[in-house]
């Protein structure tokens, strides 16, 4: 009788730890996207932070790290000259990653939870003074290719106090110029309705009549309100570049960003006598504690309060 052949099954080669960690990070990103429905910006931030963790980890196994080693990672983050807020976000990203490994049954204990959160100093935001606002908002002019679009972007940023990502995600169906407001989608997909001022409405009407039809005719058929020269939605990075371009032209600090306009919006409202709760609602802040930082920015308001109420003023 013929002998039976014994087949030797090849064992899969052990996967290098670096590749395994890379795969786990990619799997977590898919989970956050499909199951948790986090915003793309949040997912990108987690992904970037974990790639830095992956660089520090090297060929080590993340599931065997001790609390002392995790503390070394935090110390290494500080050595990279990161801002305290960035270090704090990296720690949160690591905690989320380890929670995911627990959820998948890959590890039992989440030692990252033992890492303390960074104590952050409250940084007073910089704002554009009111006397410079007009020069800045009118910096786009006919010498620029799409100056009507750019002026409308600056006007809406300042009129609504919105984020660059909210401008980039603004659809035409959510801009109601006749009613004088727009619907914004903020962090966590929270929606809020914010009034548009007369100048912002006028700038948007000019853009809609003179420029957007030409941009939309490029064939991309995007519902986005603000379009690129190819008819695609304008990215938030492009909005940052536009803000810096016109800040330089207006002779303003080049460190200005779309968020500077958001800070200016809130500060100027409070200086004009707006209630803090109203400003909180317009900004879309979940907690009024976040909005309170603006009470420290306007020194003239504080002086008026001091003069009106302090017995020795």
From TrEMBL:
Residues 19-102 form the Core-binding (CB) domain. Coiled coil: none annotated. GO terms for biological process: cell division; chromosome segregation; DNA transposition. GO terms for cellular component: cytoplasm. It is found in: Cytoplasm. Residues 123-307 form the Tyr recombinase domain. Pfam families: Phage_int_SAM_1 (PF02899), Phage_integrase (PF00589). Keywords: Cell cycle, Cell division, Chromosome partition, Cytoplasm, DNA integration, DNA recombination, DNA-binding. GO terms for molecular function: DNA binding; tyrosine-based site-specific recombinase activity. Gene3D superfamilies: 1.10.150.130, Intergrase catalytic core. The active site is at residues 163, 187, 259, 262, 285, 294. Belongs to the 'phage' integrase family. XerC subfamily. Site-specific tyrosine recombinase, which acts by catalyzing the cutting and rejoining of the recombining DNA molecules. The XerC-XerD complex is essential to convert dimers of the bacterial chromosome into monomers to permit their segregation at cell division. It also contributes to the segregational stability of plasmids. Forms a cyclic heterotetrameric complex composed of two molecules of XerC and two molecules of XerD. HAMAP family: Recomb_XerC_XerD. This is Tyrosine recombinase XerC. It comes from Bremerella volcania. The gene is xerD.
